[in-house]
Amino acid sequence: MAAPLETYPALEQPTVLQVVPEFNSDIYSETDIHIEGARSREAFEHYFDLRKQAVAVEKIDGEALQAVQADTAIFAIEEGFTTLPETLEEREKYYSEFSEGESRHKLLGLVDYLRANHADKVTEEELQATEAFVESTFSMYSDTPKNGEVMDDADGSFAFVVPARMGRKHPDYGQEVEPAIPALRYMPNELRSAMLVGLPPFVIDRYQVNEENRRGYLVFAPVFEDMKDDLDGNGRLLHASRHNINEAVDFAHRRFGVEVVGLGATLPSLTMFGKKITNPNVTTTTGHGGTVDIIRKTVEMVADKRKLKNVGVLGLGSIGMSIAKIMSSEYEDANIHVYDTAEKPMRNIAELNGNFVLGTSEKAVIEDSEVVVSAITSQLKLRSLGVENLNGTVFVDDSQPGSIDPEEAASLGGAAVWVIGRDATGEVATRQEGYDYGTMVDPNTDLFGCEAEAAAIAKYRVELRSRGMPDKVVDNITKKVAINGPVDVGAVRRISALFTKYGLLTSEPQAFGKHIILPVNQ
């Protein structure tokens, strides 16, 4: 049985909380806010120092780890950490209201339980880093000015805003949270998302400092895969998600002074391609130009352009439609097989002049294509579709979470690779702490195309200012390059030019942090 918890944050063990008092806005004046900024920065830096130590220590694995996870699962369930509110109204609040008390109760409760029951298996470095994470997260968020002003110690240039890919239906992505919150390694993957609910936006990683002594920030937006199932379709999902994304953008701008925000990891419908972002002081970009550019370069890499005769595209949303058009123009002698479950995009592409072949199903497109670009929002089980042999077909999977299981594809004689770029120079989008979403081969230089787009636009702003251009002109040029609608070929070419200019390339074939061996006949 799980040991009873005390009410948090009152803990018997010494924690960072006792060293750095909790921020109370009522006792600080506007003139003192720079002092508070220094205090929260100290907690922020302290957290990253402890996090590095936690990453480096030797950890249990295999059956020993599974045994601890099985025990903490019982503990978490008994304590109600993973209990979902019954009514839709309560669920919307559950997902869209940030609760310091609840987050401390869950995360510090887990730390306390591990320390009391599994101290011989879990390192003190991991527990202390998790405690420091909680303190840093809420002190930094509390310091964010609520009047639209920017903190005195702001040093940001851009932010890449990301949701949580993990959830009950996507447990494989649970590993991505471990570097940031080490104690969650000892919680089963399918329960980790629930442990994050209640946290405000927080910094996952930092990018290298640019020529202006400013840097990018990788920022978590509290949007979860489980929300799709837990909230109904009459607007609660949209309202809660949009609120949380706006909170992340405001946090990035007001706490760090960022000028460019990449939204590429969030579905465009949630913000209407950035049009529903309410902060007027940032330039948002969807990231779809960078994503499509990396897709087309990945297709070139996995198949000889001169021999490719059949290309498939699954999903005709903003990215899928754009990549279908680009594939049609770049592979004029090939058949571009397309399929979407919705009738409207299929009608729209049928009206275009091009070498498009309208597929009747996912299976038909897969069986008729040598390379298939997947840009959908659901998982495909190949065997369940009736696919028996891929005969060397390669999937370029841009779905997040991934739609194709790389192991299943390989077992059927094909392959599935992700759309991953690379910062060849180490000067544009290299992450300082090496956070890789738990899914990349090189934790420092590998990056998503949408992430690279925000970093490249920020780099471009630095270059424009170095030419002596006033801020107003720089802002106007930035807004013309940034993407705030369905991506077209022209937008992709502009972002591609920036990628070439700043050394942002395509990575070697990979998925889930492993290199992928392509079929011989490719």
| SS field, number of helical segments | 19
Radius of gyration: 23 Å
Number of strands: 16
Q: For the largest beta sheet, what order do the strands appear in spatially? A: 8-7-6-9-10-11
pLDDT below 50 for ≥5 consecutive residues: which ranges? 1-35
The profile of the biggest β sheet is: 6 strands, parallel
| Overall mean confidence score, pLDDT | 88
Q: In angstroms, what separates the terminal alpha carbons?
A: 55 Å
Range of strand content: 5-15%
How much helix is in the residues?
Answer: 40-55%
Assign the structural class, choosing from mainly alpha, mainly beta, alpha/beta, alpha+beta, or little secondary structure. alpha/beta
Number of domains: 2
From the spread of the alpha carbons, the general shape counts as: globular
List keywords for this structure.
alpha/beta; 5-stranded mixed sheet; 16 strands; Rossmann fold; 6-stranded parallel sheet; 522 residues
Explain this structure.
With 522 residues, the chain is an alpha/beta fold. It is globular and about 65 Å long. Helix content is 43%, strand content 14%. A six-stranded parallel sheet has the order 8-7-6-9-10-11, with helices on both faces. It has a five-stranded mixed sheet with strand order 2-3-1-4-5, with helices on both faces. The chain has a three-stranded antiparallel sheet with strand order 13-12-14. It has two domains: 16-285, no CATH class; 287-447 and 485-522, Rossmann fold (3-Layer(aba) Sandwich), CATH 3.40.50. Strand 7 (335-339), helix 13 (343-350) and strand 8 (356-358) form a beta-alpha-beta unit. The longest helix is centred in the N-terminal third of the chain and has 24 residues, at 33-56. The chain has helices at 16-19, 33-56, 62-78, 88-96, 100-117, 124-143, 189-196, 227-230, 236-256, 268-271, 288-302, 318-330, 343-350, 362-368, 382-385, 406-411, 449-466, 471-481, 489-502; strands at residues 156-164, 202-209, 215-224, 260-262, 283-285, 310-314, 335-339, 356-358, 371-374, 394-397, 415-418, 420-423, 446-448, 504-506, 510-511, 514-515. It contains 19 helices and 16 strands.
